[in-house]
Structure formats: structure tokens, C-alpha cells
Protein: Aminotransferase
Amino acid sequence: MTIERAERLKHFSEYYFSKKLKEIRQLIAAGKPVINLGIGSPDQQPPQQVIATLKSGVDAADAHGYQPYQGIAALHAAVHGFCQRYYHVDTSALQVLPLMGSKEGITHISLAYLNPGDQVLVPSLGYPTYTSVTKMVGGEPVYYPLQENQNWEPDWEWLDRLDTSKVKIMWINYPHMPTGTVASSGCMERLVAFARARGLLLCHDNPYSLVLNDTPQSIFSVAGAEEVCIELNSLSKAFNMAGWRVGWLMGKPELVAPVLQIKSNMDSGMFKPIQQAAVQALQLSEEWFAQLNAVYRKRRGLACAIMEALGCTYETDQAGMFVWGKVPSGTGEELSDRLLYEHDVFVTPGFIFGTQGKAYIRISLCSTEEVLQEVMSRIA
Amino acid sequence: MTIERAERLKHFSEYYFSKKLKEIRQLIAAGKPVINLGIGSPDQQPPQQVIATLKSGVDAADAHGYQPYQGIAALHAAVHGFCQRYYHVDTSALQVLPLMGSKEGITHISLAYLNPGDQVLVPSLGYPTYTSVTKMVGGEPVYYPLQENQNWEPDWEWLDRLDTSKVKIMWINYPHMPTGTVASSGCMERLVAFARARGLLLCHDNPYSLVLNDTPQSIFSVAGAEEVCIELNSLSKAFNMAGWRVGWLMGKPELVAPVLQIKSNMDSGMFKPIQQAAVQALQLSEEWFAQLNAVYRKRRGLACAIMEALGCTYETDQAGMFVWGKVPSGTGEELSDRLLYEHDVFVTPGFIFGTQGKAYIRISLCSTEEVLQEVMSRIA
Structure:
């Protein structure tokens, strides 16, 4: 007897990393000393105060019951304070909705706003989840090209010409993954103006703002952005808490309400001690980021040296936890496979972020200097 | 400028409790001493060893990164051991997928198996989320009546006559919420036979099995069930861990694979210290449940006395964390509103579980004996 899976599953495969990590585990089980420079899971520890807060939080008698979907007031206040301190923007009129990471928010937003057949503007290159979730809810991804020779910003002429009558959502993500690009001055303003002119929901996915980035920015810095924007953020990368599953969504109450409606039918509120730990993290001083980025800066230097040794071209000032580089010849997938099978090193092939990424590879900075040096010695 | 929400949101409202709890918070803020006997959020503490395991787990250096979607091996083993000890069934050939509670699993399963227009058999009475999630993914709920005078089991003749050519999923839930009914001998077998004969995916939602129930049962106790069944389970009620968001889904690998495919595109693996804490809980001795149920048994006695005082009719041996009763006249909603506005006591009106529930109310056992006695004195 066969019970057929839904049609939507035929449009996308198991998340690439899910399958690739399985293969890597099998190689390691078979005795291969594989070094994984693929996925961006921070190897460093969360702040000690954050761990301590979780531990004391779980001792409270009121820690264990269902929590309101909207999250605790202290978390709302901490998020607004964080946005003020690091993005220099007053978000107090906006609503904060705790999420299990920004990835979960992509599904919630898509379910809240997309009807079957609606189009979604997805950056190419970009995070594959925008595509898979759009297809999962019956929407149609429309890829808008980012221009390699223009700081990986949108092709504005292409966008101007685009018929957006069926477009409902536009995804943006700066600092941009996988290219590590920080949006230039005016880029965000132009995106907000485009979304307002076309009546689109502009969703800014902003989890990398505090990593190797001297100019952290919220979309809400742009005047009038709150009319059409939702922003996703996460503690995963900024505080080495990827496994904790904590992030948030922010927007004006009218735009958040449909997402809350979806969420309240899908799951329950977030574990209170994790919310309390998140409050602690968001209140840390800038010293935390100075230390975090000192480590990533050294690693970025080594990752650039690996790119150099592989004959790749790359920018030295990339933001986020990766270095993105163009291979000297052939495809990134060929180089990735060669590194995996000949040198026991996995780097992410660029094609998984879009066809424009075919000639690229991406190196994660989530390994120690010693590990990155070991990679250097293997490929030298 | 207005950005339209998705059509699917017009088919269901914000989860009833989300709105009602907001009203109750407002009443309390206005000085009303409201006692909430509505939602089933355990007020007792999780096992101390479970809290201790979370605290030591979070000290490990490898606790903080992304986790595999499939969960840690120790959790799989603990779930299989739990099923053997309490349900007397060998589930070792089945796959375990950790979930943030069984509620989340309803969405994952629905996305994995339903195409727009597919029908879903939903118990009436039943948990409202089966309906809202079915509609959310474009499916059509078909309500199969449970018979009040037949132990709230399905109307088998009605099912036999039903054209199931468009039905893909059938939801079942015993011990049944909201009626507290334990399935009689043969009921599960008949359900599995029906699902096999009609080629349906039979999804058993089983979070109440260990609460005030002398005969805990898994659907996999039924021979051949693994061909067509998925079972959801949760630590929320069994271990007073509702806020922790931990449960699991179980089924043969071919039936779990589509759910994993959805999940890997929607979120990430579960926080490792919470998985470790769950392992600790699942390995507890039967003494835990003896203590837990001693407390609930006393409270059930008091809830029955409240039902008596309200002139309701009810069964005294209900399983789960609620007592369900039929109001003497009028509707459950009228009685619920009268209790809230005249006596500052909230009980759940039965209509939210289906039209057959109109004449009922439900009292939660998640308050202390003192609180239940205070309710008695208020309504006396």
C-alpha cells in the first residue's frame, strides 16, 4: 500500500545541507577525516551570562507552562533596545514576535500572505529556503538578478521593467548571503521605494548584521519602511546560539497580525527560559561583538588565504560568517567535489544559491584557526 | 497602502485560546480575580532530574550549534524504550522525528500529505487545530461524528457508507480530547482496518496516554498499523513540560520521509539540551506517573464536584487533564460566560470542539486543589 506524498514535495528536494551532511557523516564513519567548511553553525560558545540566565530561568516555577505566542514583555523591550543601540532606529511602535529562528519566519510569512499562484521576488543569488518555502505554499518564485559587478545589488532597470501585478512578497537579505555584501548607501531606500510604489510586502532577512560589519542596519532606518516591511532577525549568528532556535520578526501590528494568526494555529509560544536568555544576550555591551568579530576577522584572513591557494578571486571585506570566491576555471561544484574526495574538505558549491553562483564556492568561518590552517596544509 | 493577507486566513480565526486568554489578561489587569480553568497547561513542575539534565546539557561545548533534523540517537532509543515500557510495543523498526510538540506535527503532516482539495477526516468532537491546519493548507475537513452514547467512538455505519475517494488523512485521538474517553477494546483495530481498506493515512494524536489512564496504548499495538499510521506524542502533559516544546512523531521511514522533507525546509533541529532532558524524562520509572496521577485524581474529584454543583452530567473516570460535562440547560457558552462575568471563573465552552459540543463545558485539572475549592465556594 502506498500513501502518496503531496504534490508540493515534487517541486523541491530535501534541504541540500540535510542530504550533504548525511553523506559527510557517512564519510567520517568510514574513517575519512573530513573537515566541514560548509554550514554556518557557530563553533564558539554563547555568552556565559546567557547560559547562566537559561539555568536560573528553568528553576522558576512559572517556567514550564505554555507561553503566549507574542512572547514576554522583557523580550520586546530588549529587541527595541538592541535596534536602538546597534541600528540607531526607534522601533517602539513596531510589534516583535519571537520566532524559532528566522528560517521559521519565512514559512510563517509565506503562509500568511501568499495565495496559490502568487509570485514572490527572490534574490538570485540567495538563500535556497526562499524558493523552497514559496513553492511549498503554492507560490511562484520570480528571480531578480543581483549584479556581480554592482556590489551584488538588484538590477534596477530589470526591476523597473518588471510586471509586478502578481507579485506579493519581495525577499531581501543584506548583509547578503552567500556573497557577504553590505548594501551600499541608498540601496535600502531604493528597495523600500520600489516596494511602496508596487504595493509589495518587503521582507528583510537580517541575521548577519552584527558579524564583520561596521555598519549594521535595519530596514526600518529607511523613512516609511514600516508601511510595507517586515524584518527577520536571529540570535543564531550574533550570539553563537544557532541550536537554541531563537529569533524574531518585527513589523507594524497590521502586518504582523496575519503571521500571528498562522503561528497560533501551528505551534505555541517559546520556552520562557530561552526568551529570558535571549533578553540577556540582546542587552550585552558592544564588547561582546568586539571579541566575536576579532575572532572572525582572523579566520576571514585564513579563509582568504585558502581562496588564494585555490586560485579563486574574492573580496577581503566580506560581512557575515563566510567567504565567497570565484573559482579560476570549471564550476564550484567540481572544485567542491574535488576538495571533498581528494582532500577531505567540504566547501559549499555556489550553485545551490542560484545559477549565477555556479562558478563560486563558499567557505564558512565557523572553524578554528587551527582547522583552517590544517585545510591550508591539505590543499597546498 | 494595504497588503492583503492570504485567502486561507479568512477560513479560520486566531486560535480561540489566543483571543480568550487576551480577554482574561485584560480582566485581570482591570482587577478581576479571574481563575482560568480553561487551557490545559500543567501547573506542576517537571521532574527535577529533567531540569538538572537541561542545566548540565547547556554547559557542554557542543550544545549550541544546529542539530540534525532527525534528532539525537539517545532520544530515538529513549522513545523506543518508553513505547516498550508503557505501551508494550516494539517500535524499533519505526522512525522517530523530534517535534516542538504534537501541535507542530499536525502542520508538518498536513503539508507533507495534502494537496489542495484533498479531504481530511476530522473527529467531531475534536481538537480545533485539525480543522484550522487542514484549511490552512487548502484541504477540506470532513467531520466524522463521534457518538456520545457509544463511548465517543466513531459511527461505524456512517464511516462505512462514506465515499473516501478524496480522503487522504484521518485524524484520531484517544484518550480523546475533550471528552476524556479511553478507546474501548477493538476500537483501534477497527480504525486501522478502515484506514487500510480505504488507503488512508491514519494519524493518531496521543499526548494524553499517561494521564489518568490505566491502559496506555499506542496505535502501533495493532497488527499492521505501521503500514498506514503515524503517531504523535508529546512530553507536555506526561511530564509537565508544555512550555519546553518537545514531542515526537513516529512511523515507518517511508511515511516519515515526506514530513522530514517539509521540516528540513521549514526549521532546524531541536536544541540539544532539550533533547537530552527529554531522554531523561522518558527514562523515568513508573513512580513518576504514580505521583502525577495521584495529584490529578484528587483534582478530578473536585472538578466532578464543581460539575455537580453546576448541575452538569459527567463521567467520573475520564482520562487526560480535563473533566467534560453536559450542562443542565442552555449552552456551554452561556454557562461559560456567566461563570466568567459573574463569578470570575473561566471554563472552556464545548462548542469550540465541534457543534456536538454545544451543550458541554470542559474544566481543566491544571489548578491546585485550593484553587478548585475556591471555585466551588464562588459558585456555591
Notes: The longest helix of chain A spans residues 286-309.
